[in-house]
Design brief:
The complex is a heterotrimer of chains A (563), B (395) and C (71). Chain A is 53% helix and 7% strand. With 563 residues, chain A is of the alpha/beta class. In chain A, helix 15 (319-345) runs parallel beside helix 17 (370-388). The longest helix of chain B has 23 residues, at 136-158. Classes of the chains: A alpha/beta (563), B alpha/beta (395), C mainly alpha (71).
């Protein structure tokens, strides 16, 4: 079929040209205003970010013009800087230039890698849309930390991977501990100088869904194709599919698993055992974790895990290493508390809702790594500046929201949209509040005690199990963070949250709280699309709150095909 | 076969949770203690002065109020229990001895704590933490939990005697029920079983939901009759099957399977007797409570256990049962929205036929079983497929 | 001297040109468009056609306990 000039022109218009409305076209040109907009960027209400999208792809006809200063910062310090570091990190963690070869092998072997990771800059774009100044900078550092740590992990996996190394059990394979992503990395601090621990699912489907949600659908379908019903937690389904499709790297002689966060996670232990077929240690956490009587059991299971690692790798746990990393991790915790304090009590907090949520869950699950300290130092400088100079980072805030329960992974950046469109500023979320535990290191007993508490407060667990009082702590946090609105995630396949749905309805009514239920299916955008989520929020804001959108172009757009 | 003695009386007892025997025991001054899971040892709830009632919601319709609280995306068993509680059907309970062993029943029990549903001023709901492994650490932990959250609470609230002597007596009575159920169940192992799956499920369920001291005589009568009961001259089933899976407390479901020509010879599911009706053995040097804790962890075949060798051994256990009870196939039934059994069923469906050679019929059902027609078709097809395989084998 | 300067300016011009091109790639989201319209379809094709072993054929037989139960 011949492609004519008209087709090229149409394609060009589709991909690059932002169509103006007739009213805008007819407006007389105001050079002064144009210059001002060029220099400082358009005021929030005039941005029309929704016009920048290419069809349903989520791509931009052109990236947002944020004013000279912010655009150049974004270009140099976010876009260029991160692309460059994606290459240097691959070499850094891959042991030099040969790392590029390892990376290429992994990219060509694994769908979650080949289809996903190069699209990472769009992940930044989605999370940072509409942000300016310090909020843009601080949030971008959080993203940078996550990308770097992700590269470190997949490079370790690829280097050790039997599947990429002709079935050879190389030295790296022999020195890598595989564990369930919900088992915190801090369990392995005692070996961090000699072994490395990498969570099995963290990169292949958890991080990958955030970056590009297309890949995970293959795994969910694969799981259901061999008989799994559609209703279990789709995260666990995706893990099953990863195994069914033989798309997991074989990078360790052992596997350590846990029961966090839910029944589905317990059930996937069988899958790990079946498909990996190697020594597997289960380190379950007690369900009624507030009970003082359960702590001993939890501590002994941790000791059991340590013994398992010692026996399988022939390396004794190094207490000094544990102390070093635990103390380092405490520094991250202290800074997290500082962040919460600023977020709760001032309008100067410079992190977007999505960056806050993802960074927190990532580093606290992963444990102490140098990159987190580096990133926190950047963010601290920015946050201190905001507080000192009283910089309102989200000046169009109309509502301070708390997001509760587990978030839609394919639309974790909903909060960026909600702020741009409606001025809903998602100040804090449930996942950020997990792992709220200082690790004492003065004695072995104290260390073990705190470590068990830390693991009992793991994501989607601290609040979701162990009694209704934990999940209902929403109302205390709402007060603590000065929120006037709740975004109540409604994960349709989470039995724990579905099982307490009506109690929340009752409480919202009783307490006269504005709560918007956001249904979703974690990684699977087919169940509830992003557009449907936006519609629900739009409806609430117009019909209940009777408010006008800040940016009407964001009310209704199609991003069904976007990453 | 001649009708089993007491069987219709026992069937009647299953029509409501607050059945005549429960009412009688209450009138005798005993405390009714509800529970939902095998991990709450019924033997502890059957101490002198109280009795256990494993909760069911028979004759449930549409659990509308519970669906408001728990949505329609949770296991219907949990919802029907909440509905029954909201309707007042569990007001006879003096306490709910709860476990957080699966999410939805846990949420149901949390609603009892949170919402003042049970109209009984003495009512309380107490949770016990149940471990996920079978090692010594878990047994220690479980024993502590049972002492603090069950025995001490019963003593505190109802002044129940929880001494070792009382526990020994409870174990003795419990073991007698187990012996009788094992004896009754053993007739299912015969080449031509002299008890049907439906009859056995009615009897087994009654031991879970009625005060034991009021049904033990009936069990003895049944056991006695079975000694001489003869199978029908003409075999009225085509194949024998093991029924395994999640919660199942509906004898009519067993009847449905049997109407399709598959005699249910073994019941390896929640509320079944395999496991569940093994005698508690007190080892030398063990306290009764220790023995109980060990027994319940060691005997359970729940898919929530995570020890590597136990996860694998579960498959073997199922195959062993099929062999012991001379079954031709296995029906794996999963309550819709049961997270544990979603996986267990899918995996078993792949592994059991391949590694153990047993044909499997894998189904998903609701607590209120409205899909009778579809299931009947599935079971009939399964029976036919087993028969065909037999013919092919013989050929 | 003028040669060095010339070379320097040439280098600067090339650097500026590359910088300008990169800015155009950034501003017009050409990286995204390349990955979306060209790279990802290629990868999808590759992974959809990849031969994969039947992972469910993995045997699931009995195993000894991996832990000392005295813990």
């Amino acid at each position: 079929m011949a492609i004519g000039f008209k087709d090229i022109k149409a394609k060009y218009r589709e991909l690059f040209v932002v169509e103006k409305s007739p009213e805008e076209k007819n407006k007389p040109k105001d050079i002064k205003k144009m210059a001002k907009d060029f220099w400082y960027g358009k005021p929030h209400e005039e941005r029309r970010l929704g016009d920048l999208y290419v069809g349903n792809t989520g791509l931009y006809k052109h990236r947002e013009w944020r004013g000279v200063k912010d655009t150049m910062y974004y270009f140099n310090m976010i876009w260029l800087y991160n692309y460059a570091h994606m290459v240097t990190d691959i070499m850094k963690y891959g042991g030099g230039p040969q790392g590029v070869v390892t990376f290429a092998k992994g990219t060509m072997r694994y769908r979650w890698m080949g289809q996903t990771y190069l699209t990472v800059m769009h992940w930044f774009d989605r999370g940072l849309e509409g942000t300016r100044g310090e909020a843009m900078k601080a949030s971008a550092w959080h993203y940078r930390g996550m990308v770097s740590e992700t590269i470190r992990q997949f490079m370790r996996m690829f280097e050790a991977d039997k599947k990429l190394n002709g079935g050879e059990e190389n030295e790296t394979w022999k020195k890598t501990i595989a564990h369930n992503e919900t088992l915190s990395g801090n369990i392995f601090y005692g070996w961090r100088d000699q072994l490395d621990d990498v969570a099995l699912e963290m990169i292949p489907y958890f991080v990958s869904v955030h970056v590009n949600n297309h890949t995970v659908l293959n795994y969910i379908d694969a799981a259901q194709s061999i008989g799994l019903p559609a209703d279990p937690c789709p995260m666990c389904q995706a893990e099953y599919g990863l195994f069914v499709q033989d798309d997991y790297p074989d990078y360790s002689p052992v596997m350590l698993t846990t029961n966090e966060a839910c029944d589905g996670s317990v059930a996937t232990s069988v899958l790990q055992d079946w498909f990996l077929n190697r020594p597997l240690y289960a380190m379950p956490q007690p369900m009624r974790y507030d009970d003082p009587l359960v702590q001993k059991n939890c501590q002994k299971e941790i000791e059991g895990a340590w013994k398992f690692v010692e026996e399988n790798f022939g390396i004794k746990m190094d207490w000094d290493q544990y102390v070093k990393h635990a103390q380092n991790f405490n520094k991250l915790t202290e800074f997290e508390w500082e962040k919460w304090d600023v977020a709760a009590n001032t309008p100067y907090y410079p992190i977007t809702g999505v960056a806050q949520a993802l960074y927190r869950i990532y580093y606290s699950q992963d444990g102490d790594r140098p990159i987190w300290h580096e990133m926190d130092a950047h963010v601290k400088r920015i946050m201190d500046k905001c507080v000192k100079n009283k910089i309102e980072t989200f000046p169009k805030t109309r509502h301070r929201a708390i997001a509760w329960s587990c978030a839609p992974l394919y639309y974790s950046h909903w909060c960026t949209w909600a702020y741009n469109c409606w001025g809903i500023n998602c100040v804090i979320n449930m996942d950020s509040l997990m792992f709220d535990q200082y690790l004492r290191t003065d004695t072995y007993e104290h260390a073990l005690e705190d470590l068990s508490w830390f693991n009992e407060k793991a994501p989607m667990r601290a609040m979701a199990v162990g009694g209704h009082e934990h999940i209902l702590s929403l109302f205390d946090y709402m007060e603590r963070f000065n929120c006037d609105m709740v975004i109540m995630y409604d994960q349709l396949q989470c039995k724990g949250m579905q099982g307490i749905h009506g109690v929340f309805e009752d409480e919202f009514r009783k307490r006269n709280i504005h709560a918007i239920w956001v249904p979703h299916a974690l990684p699977d955008k087919r169940t509830v699309s992003r557009a449907e989520i936006r519609d629900i929020i739009n409806d609430y804001m117009t019909t209940v709150m009777r408010e006008e959108p800040l940016d009407p172009s964001l009310l209704d757009f199609d991003d069904g095909g976007s990453w | 076969m001649k009708d089993l003695v007491h069987i219709f009386e026992l069937e009647d007892l299953l029509q409501e949770a607050n059945n005549p025997l429960v009412r009688q025991a209450k009138a005798d001054g005993r405390r009714a203690l509800g529970y939902t899971c095998y991990f709450m040892p019924e033997v502890l709830l059957d101490l002198p002065g109280c009795f256990s009632v494993r909760l069911r919601a028979p004759r449930s319709g549409s659990p509308d109020m519970a669906t408001y609280y728990m949505t329609n995306r949770t296991c219907m068993y949990g919802r029907c229990l909440l509905e029954r509680a909201l309707e007042g059907g569990f007001n006879f309970l003096d306490a709910e001895m709860a476990t957080e062993t699966c999410t939805v029943t846990c949420r149901f029990q949390e609603h009892l704590q949170l919402m003042d549903i049970i109209k009984n001023p003495d009512f309380f709901c107490e949770f016990t933490d149940v471990p996920f492994k079978k090692n010594e650490n878990s047994i220690d932990h479980y024993e502590n939990q049972l002492r603090f959250h069950v025995l001490d609470k019963l003593k505190e609230h109802f002044d129940i005697d929880t001494s070792d002597e009382a526990l020994l007596k409870a174990i003795e009575e419990h073991n007698e029920v187990c012996r009788l159920i094992q004896e009754i169940g053993s007739y299912r192992k015969l080449d031509e079983p002299t008890i049907t799956g439906w009859e056995f499920s009615v009897i087994q369920l009654c031991t879970l939901v009625c005060p034991k001291y009021l049904i033990i005589d009936k069990l003895r009568d049944i056991a006695e009759q079975l000694k001489t009961r003869k199978p029908d001259a003409k075999k009225n089933y085509r194949v024998k099957v093991v029924l395994t899976g999640s919660e199942e407390d509906d004898p009519d479901f067993i009847k449905l399977i049997e109407e399709c020509g598959a005699l249910v010879v073994a019941d390896r599911y929640c509320y079944g007797s395999l496991p569940g009706r093994e005698e508690i053995v007190i080892k030398e040097g063990e306290t009764p409570l220790r023995a109980i804790a060990r027994h319940y962890l060691e005997t359970s075949e729940c898919p929530r256990f995570m020890d590597q060798h136990i996860m694998r051994q579960r498959k073997q256990y199922l195959a062993d049962i099929a062999k012991e009870y001379k079954a031709d196939g296995i029906i794996i039934s999963q309550m819709k929205f049961c997270e544990y059994w979603s996986y267990e069923r899918t995996i078993d469906t792949l592994i059991i036929p391949r590694d153990f050679g047993y044909p499997v019929c894998s189904i998903e059902k609701e607590y209120v079983n409205n899909a009778v027609g579809q299931l009947r078709t599935r079971f009939q097809a399964f029976v036919e497929s087993i028969e065909l395989k037999k013919i092919q084998k013989e050929g | 001297m003028s040669k060095i300067l010339k070379f320097f300016f040439k280098l600067l011009r090339i650097a500026l040109l590359i910088y300008g091109i990169l800015f155009a790639v950034f501003y017009y989201d050409l990286d995204g468009k390349f990955l979306y319209y060209i790279w990802e379809p290629l990868m999808i094709k590759r992974f959809d056609n990849m031969k994969r072993p039947d992972a469910t054929a993995m045997p699931y037989s009995m195993k000894e306990s991996v832990e000392d139960t005295s813990i």
